[in-house]
Amino acid sequence: MNLIEWKEKLLPLFLKQLETALETHLAEIELDVRVSQGLEGIEQIYCDLIKEGVEKNFHALFFEETDYQQYKMEMEAKCYERGHAYAEGKQISKELILKLSHNLRMHVISNMYRVMDSLGVSSVDSAIKDFLIERQFDLSGTQLNGIVLGYLDAREYQIHRLSMQTQNIMGHMAAGVAHEIRNPITSFQGFLQLMEKSVEQRNVDPTMFLHYIQVCKEEIASLEGLVKNFLILSNKNDTIKKELGPVNLTSTLHRVYEIAKSFVYEKNVYMHFYYPQDQCWINGVSSYVEQICLNLIKNAIDAVDEGGHLFVETVMDHSNEQMVIMFRDNGRGIPEGRLKHIFEPFFNTTEKGTGMGMSICKRLVEEMKGTIAIESLINRGTKVEVRLPLISAVSSL
User: Do domains 172-234 and 245-396 have the same CATH topology?
Assistant: First the structure.
């Protein structure tokens, strides 16, 4: 069998028929499948890749055995990388890969038969026909095997990575919740022991008992707040959700300022608070705005050293019909590697708290149809920008 002679005779005809095979192949992949599976819009890239691969395979059909086996190994490695890329880029599903591969193989082989039959290849030459078709099946199978293995390995890695992330989140959650619950329970146990001892010694002081009860009530309120935060994150409690409406931002920020003053006094931090003195209205929920601002102010206070500075400023973005509330501090900053996880539930940049504050802020901001963004530089500080829908007057709603 002289492969060189058959190559000169058949290869140009195989390549000439390739465009027809590709056109028929793509036409038979239903439009709705291409759209739903993500092939629509990348058809040209797909065709270029396939054309290049099939052209190389046609040349390889006529290789000597040693070169042919080497080509197969290299091709399978490249197909493995392509399958990995498909999974990572989420361009094509596994089912579509199988469908495309089977359809393409049938059209390529059909065109090969058509070319050889058109030449009138006699039964004497049936050996070369069988040889070339067998190699084409072999190459197609090797391609598919490489792509599918790469695809499945990438998907397995993604599942493993998601599992590890879930376990990590659960670990953060468990640690944070245990910390938050342990403190009130310790208080309950301590006060109950004191009250029990007082009763046993018949030394009951009503004033002290009332003090103990008040502290316990405050701890219970803290636990209720923790439960509320969990419900906000899980989005399961419809009673927490509130209708959006006109919010007097000026009066809301004034309340935030009065509450926040006690936070900065405790740590000796300078707070610079600037908000519009004229009436300013946004579309949102007042309690949401208050909770978001207090969470971000607390974070900033935790981030700065004693004597540090915190700035809260508002700017009207009339072009986008938004009110921008900015929180800036000159604290230690957040490393870039941690910053990208800042809005993940239970992710904490400090040893304090549950790590739910920023994720709750994001959830509440988004419920008010707004956006939140954060920038930070190590040893320079952090800036958080909250944008909420602005309305010029209550009557405009």
Answer: no
Name the region of 372 (left: φ>0; alpha: ψ -120 to 50; beta: rest): beta
Backbone angles phi, psi at 283, to 5 degrees: -100, 110
Helical pair 206-234 and 357-367, crossing angle rounded to 10 deg: 60
Q: How far apart are CA 64 and CA 76, in angstroms?
A: 18
172-234: CATH number: 1.10.287
Phi first, then psi, for residue 310 (nearest 5°) are: -130, 130
**Token digits for 11?**
């290869």
> CA-based angle 351:353:356, to the nearest 5?
120
245-396: what fold?
Answer: Heat Shock Protein 90 (3.30.565)
Q: Give per-residue pLDDT as tens, 359-381.
A: 888 988 998 999 999 999 998 99
pLDDT digits (tens, 9 = 90+) for 217-227: 877 876 776 67
Left if phi > 0, otherwise alpha if psi is -120 to 50, otherwise beta: which for 279?
beta
**How many angstroms separate the CA atoms of 219 and 225, rounded?**
10
**pTM, rounded to two decimals:** 0.50
Does residue 194 carry a pLDDT above 90?
no
How far does the chain reach from its first CA to its final CA, in angstroms? 85
Q: What contacts 30, CB < 8 A, 6 or more positions away?
A: none
What span, in angstroms and rounded, lies between the C-alpha atoms of 353 and 360?
13
Cα→Cα distances 372→296, 302, 360, Å? 11, 20, 11
Task: Name 388's bridge partners.
Answer: 323
> How many whole angstroms separate alpha carbon 328 and alpha carbon 9?
75
- The residue whose two tokens read 């596994």 is 94
| Cα 60 to Cα 96: distance, rounded to the nearest angstrom | 26
Determine contact, residues 382/329, Cβ cutoff 8 Å.
yes
Sorted by where each begins, the domain ranges of the chain are 3-164, 172-234, 245-396
Structure tokens of 170? 């659960």
